[in-house]
Amino acid sequence: MNTVLTPPALLMVLAMSAAAEPGPRVTTDTLEYCGSLAARLAGMPAATQEPSRSLAAEGMRLCGNGHLRTGIAKLRRAVRAAQAGS
User: Residue 9, Cβ neighbours under 10 Å: how many?
Assistant: First the structure.
């Protein structure tokens, strides 16, 4: 039986798993890098504001559906937007 996670739930799972494992930063097109970006974004005060929130949700949805490069690009845009919003 496959369990489907909604984007906010998937974002939280990936952020928690990425934060729980200290080590070098992952910078390849992998699901782990999606989690790394999600964890980074989750720690930013402006992450809950638009456009960061919707970009992150879309990025996580894309990563979860196997579209890693496009999902990572959205997550990177979300991080940049959150940095600009703080």
Answer: 13
